[in-house]
Design a protein that fits this description.
By secondary structure, the chain is α/β, with parallel strands linked by helices. The protein has nine helices and four strands.
Length: about 170
């Protein structure tokens, strides 16, 4: 990633880039605490920014690539399998490619919220890859996840998340 986003949170990033006013940030902080949701979810729920505007703002503010129309991309099955269907849905991201350059490995992801630092640490530890991040719209990412993962890949995740099935 081009900037050290671990030192910021989503609201501060968008405020510094002038996508949110100080009063917007105060309202969102109260809203997300009251309804126990992430800043990303609160921004969308309050309709302060659309999905597209939020993705554009994050890409611009963090100097990340902005990806659209993920369903039109060619993603290798081996790359896709780095994340389970359940992880991809939960973290709202999809692995696009894995590259080895000299003595380093890189994993490129498209995500809704690039400030989910804990998630990147888990993936870095699991894969041994440096994470390259791009930003996409939530609906586009979820549509691509549903399209790219076969029903066979989806079923185990659906089964393990159902509290009524033992």
């Amino acid at each position: 990633m081009s900037k050290d986003i671990e030192n910021y949170d989503l609201l501060k990033i968008l405020h510094r880039a002038k996508y949110l006013s100080s009063s917007n940030v105060q309202i969102l902080e109260q809203y997300l605490r009251r309804w126990s949701m992430s800043a990303y979810q609160a921004i969308l729920k309050t309709q302060l920014l659309t999905e597209s505007d939020l993705a554009d703002a994050l890409a611009s503010s963090l100097e990340l690539e902005r990806i659209r129309l993920i369903c039109n991309m060619n993603i290798l099955p081996a790359t896709l399998s780095i994340l389970t269907f359940r992880e991809a849905r939960m973290w709202e991201c999809i692995a696009l490619e894995r590259r080895n350059l000299e003595d380093k490995s890189f994993l490129k992801l498209v995500v809704t919220d690039p400030t989910k630092i804990r998630f990147f640490s888990i993936l870095r530890e699991r894969t041994g890859c440096d994470i390259l991040c791009a930003v996409g719209e939530r609906s586009d990412i979820l549509r691509a996840i549903n399209e790219f993962y076969s029903i066979e890949d989806q079923l185990p995740s659906l089964h393990s998340s159902n509290p009524f099935i033992e």
